[in-house]
Amino acid sequence: MGIPKRFWSVEFQEVLKGLPFKEREKLLKFLEGFKESSGLIIYGKPQSGKTTLLCALLKEIYRRHKVKGYYTSFSRVFLYLRRGGDLKQLYSFLVGRRLLAFDDLGDEVLGNWEKNFMGQVLEERFNNFKVTLVGTRYSLRLNELSTEDTLRDRLGDTLYLRILKLGRVVNVSP
Questions:
Q1: Which residues span the domain enclosing 146?
Q2: Which residues, in sequence order, are CB contacts of 75 under 8 Å at separation 6+?
Q3: What CATH number does the domain containing 151 carry?
Q4: Distances (CA, A) of 27 to 32, 37, 113, 125
Q5: How many domains does the chain have?
Q6: Which is nearest to 133 in space by CA: 64, 66, 57, 33?
Q7: Do residues 14 and 161 lie in contact, with contact meaning Cβ atoms separated by under 8 Å?
Q8: Apex CA 16: angle with CA 29 and CA 24, to 5°?
Q9: Predicted local confidence at residue 141, as pLDDT
C-alpha cells in the first residue's frame, strides 16, 4: 500500500475522534459511498494530521471495501522521474490503481510539463471512476487578507480545477 512505516499502526477510529463533528460526518459519508466517489481532498495546516488521516483512510477502505490503495506524494512521483524512472510505467501505475492517495500536494514546485502530466493523470483517473485522495497544506480558497499561497497559486488554474473535481473537502485544522 506504500504506507510509510511510521503510520502502519494508525487506526481510522482513533484519528476520527480528533476531528470536528462536521469533518467526521464527511469522512463517514465518503466511506459509505466509496464505490460512487471520485475522491476526497484533505486540507490542513502543517502537522495537523493530514498524512495520518490519509494512511488511516487507506487502511479503513481496505477493511470495509477490500480495495487496496497506494500512498505516495507528488514529490516522490517527480523524484522517480528525475532519477530516470520509466514515464509510461509510472503513468500506467498512477492511472491504473483503483485507489490512490497523493500527499503534500502543492509542496513541489511544478513546471508546465509536471502540471500537464499530473493533470492528465487526474483527468484519466476521474474519467475512469478511480478514487483519488489528496492531502495538502495549501488553502483551497482565496483569502483576501492573507499573503500565503493558495493551492490555485501553487498549481495553476487547470490542475487546481481538476483537483476540485475530486469532491468533498475535509479540513483537519482546528
A1: 5-171
A2: 104, 107, 108
A3: 3.40.50.300
A4: 9, 12, 33, 21
A5: 1
A6: 57
A7: no
A8: 35
A9: 75
Grid cell listed for 72: 505516495
Query: Which grid cell sits at 95?
Result: 492511472
With H, G, I as helix, E, B as strand and everything else as coil, classify residue 153.
helix
All cell numbers assigned to 14: 482513533
Residue with the three cell numbers 475522534: 17
Those residues whose C-beta lies under 8 Å from the C-beta of residue 151, and which sit 6 or more positions away, are: 105, 106, 136, 138, 139, 140, 160, 163
48: amino acid identity, one letter:
S
How far apart are the C-alpha atoms of 9 and 16, rounded to whole Å?
A: 14
The phi, psi pair for 132, rounded to 5°, reads: -125, 125
Considering only CA atoms, give the Rg of the chain.
15
CB 37 within 8 A of CB 129: no
What are phi and psi for residue 111, nearest 5 degrees?
-85, 180
Is the Cβ–Cβ distance between 119 and 158 less than 8 Å?
yes
Instruction: Quick: pLDDT tens for 32-49.
Output: 988 877 899 999 999 999
Q: In this structure, which amino acid lies at residue 92? A: S
**List of the chain residues with pLDDT < 70:** 142-147, 174
Phi-psi region of 20 (alpha: psi -120 to 50; beta: other; left: phi over 0): beta
Residue 147 confidence (pLDDT): 64
